[in-house]
Amino acid sequence: MVVCPSGCRVIKNRWVFDVKPNGRKRACLVAKGFSQVEGKDFDQIFSPVVQFETVRLILALAALEGWFLSGLDVRNAYLYGELEEEIYMEQPEGFHARGKERHVLRLRCALYGLKQAGLAWWRALKKSMEELGFINLDSDAGLFKCFDEASKTFIIAVVYVDDTIFLGPSKAAVEIMKKRFMERWESRDLGELKEFLHMHIGRAGQSIYIDQAQYLQAVLQQCGMVNAKAVPTPLPVGYAPVKSLDKAADPELRKKYQTVIGSLLYLMLGTRPDISFAVTKMAQFAANPTEDHLSHALYICCYLVGTPNYRLKYDGVSGQGLNACTDSDWASDVNTRRSTSGFFIKLAGGLISWTTKAQKTVALSSTEAEYMALS
Asked: Which pLDDT score is estimated for 24?
């Protein structure tokens, strides 16, 4: 707590209150980072996180190789990140120091809401992992690996902000490394992995299953589609959305549409490749949607009502290696005449990666479109 320097910008804050699913009440002090000025209060803000594809790849390998999985959650992770910038903040409401009401707080460590909070935590985490003997991959910065000399085996750590998975062939080595990590950071031990990034992870024998059934129910409830009539396909057969001719959509319509599409995108990226084409196609109209676009975005929800328990399975007994498939249509987009590419990659009999996207240029034949998809 210091006297505010002359000419210094002071950031405000607010309390955010929440009730967790287990009934526990939580209060969090959040800085109003939107008032920060680039070049003065922050410079770089990008913080790497592990990709969904990497998580599924690791789970498929764990099924094939019989690896042990264990999870933990770092408590108040952002508060550990040390700030490089000189930032001052008002005293929190309800906690003004008597006789020092005009003083401000000089932030030495990050606070939730600051634009560079995620990056500051990432730097602290990476330094800590290197001290434990881990190095992170260039291809995915959220994946760390370490060779344990005592057990003569390796340990892998998958990190997404404050959620972490430790896994490897040796349960004892994994538990020892996990304990060493928890000695450095105050963490909640989740034991054998059951959930990660809103994905439920189940294990039966040598098979691993992942789904987002609980998150899906929350999405359907938010969209008011819990009791909707189920349909057999994500979009009606032959439906081709047409872009709006109006210059600007109704703000309320756009907000509702983007909320629905955003929730569906998270499902698609996590465990639902079956809605990949439909969600990607409808997401192209998020900037200027119409009532027709909204009704068909909710049509995808109707499909999900009838398929709430779909899940991905990685069968360790199968011993199946990588299997990749790709295809393309031709000039299907009535607005641009661009073709749509699609591919998926399987490991252990389950999908680990998939993509549906419009091609960057117009193909002059179906053969050309398929070559573009293959490349």
From this structure: 87
| Helix runs in the chain, H state only | 52-65, 117-131, 171-184, 213-222, 251-270, 276-283, 291-305, 366-374
Q: Which residues of 188-204 are buried (b: 16+ CB within 10 A; e: fewer)?
A: eebeebeebbebbbebe
User: What gap in Å lies between CA 348 and CA 54, rounded to an integer?
Assistant: 14
Question: Could you give the C-alpha distances from 355 to 8, 265, 274, in angstroms and in order?
Answer: 48, 12, 11
- The pLDDT, as a whole number, for residue 208 is 96
Beta bridge partners of 187: 74
Q: What band does 305 get if pLDDT is binned at 50, 70 and 90?
A: very high
Residue type at 76?
Answer: N
Residue 148 pLDDT: 84
Residues 6+ apart with CB under 8 A from 83: 107, 108, 109, 110, 114, 116, 120
Tell me the C-alpha distance between 290 and 263, whole Å: 18
Residue 335 has pLDDT above 90, yes or no: no
CA distance 31 to 15: 9
| Residue 204 CB partners (closer than 8 Å, separation 6+) | none
Q: How many whole angstroms separate alpha carbon 245 and alpha carbon 336?
A: 14
